[in-house]
């Protein structure tokens, strides 16, 4: 499957909420990769980035707040918040990667996991309000 091709797969609703939360706070190039077939440990990676560490921390806070508010889930663990160049939020079924833009470019997870289909996440969650 070619990178950039989005597919419709069963996405954990909380992963879509995490992507929407990042997008709402101006996370850059937010993507969701379906990882079940390739990785087997988690269903999805949510990947987003920010131009500075303050924005990285803002994204992490907003993702955590919205996933908790909508789905009553907290991350099992959060790593990397001290330097905020790559923060990993482990939710069990999915993992959120919030990168400083230059760190994202260096590690290039989308290329590393290029066999993972991109998932359409916009509008995947119906909000009650």
Description:
Helices cover 33% and strands 26% of the residues. It is of the alpha/beta class. The strands form two sheets. A five-stranded mixed beta sheet has the order 2-3-6-5-4. The longest helix is centred in the middle third of the chain and has 19 residues. The protein has one domain: 2-Layer Sandwich (Beta Polymerase, domain 2), CATH 3.30.460.10. It is built from four helices and seven strands.
In short:
This protein has four helices and seven strands. It has helices at 13-24, 53-71, 101-107, 109-112, and strands at residues 6-7, 28-34, 44-50, 77-79, 86-90, 94-100, 118-119.
Low-confidence stretches: 1-8
> What's the rounded overall pLDDT mean?
89
Question: Largest sheet at a glance?
Answer: 5 strands, mixed
In N-to-C order, the SSE pattern is: EHEEHEEEHHE
CATH homologous superfamily designation = Beta Polymerase, domain 2
User: What name does CATH use for the topology?
Assistant: Beta Polymerase, domain 2
The coarse overall form would be globular
Rg (C-alpha, Å): 13 Å
Our count of domains comes out at 1
Structural class: alpha/beta
Strand content: 25-35%
DSSP E strands, number:
7
In helices, the fraction of residues equals 25-40%
What is the overall number of helices?
Answer: 4
Q: What is the CA–CA distance across the termini?
A: 37 Å
């Amino acid at each position: 499957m070619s990178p950039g091709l989005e597919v419709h797969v069963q996405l954990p609703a909380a992963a879509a909420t995490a992507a929407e939360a990042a997008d709402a706070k101006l996370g850059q190039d937010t993507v969701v990769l379906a990882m079940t077939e390739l990785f087997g440990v988690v269903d999805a990676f949510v990947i987003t980035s920010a131009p500075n560490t303050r924005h990285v921390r803002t994204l992490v806070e907003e993702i955590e707040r919205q996933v908790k508010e909508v789905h009553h889930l907290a991350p099992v663990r959060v790593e990397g918040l001290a330097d905020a160049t790559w923060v990993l939020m482990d939710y069990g079924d999915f993992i959120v990667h919030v990168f400083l833009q230059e760190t994202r470019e260096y590690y290039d997870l989308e290329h590393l996991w290029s066999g993972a289909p991109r998932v359409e996440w916009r509008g995947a969650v119906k909000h009650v309000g």
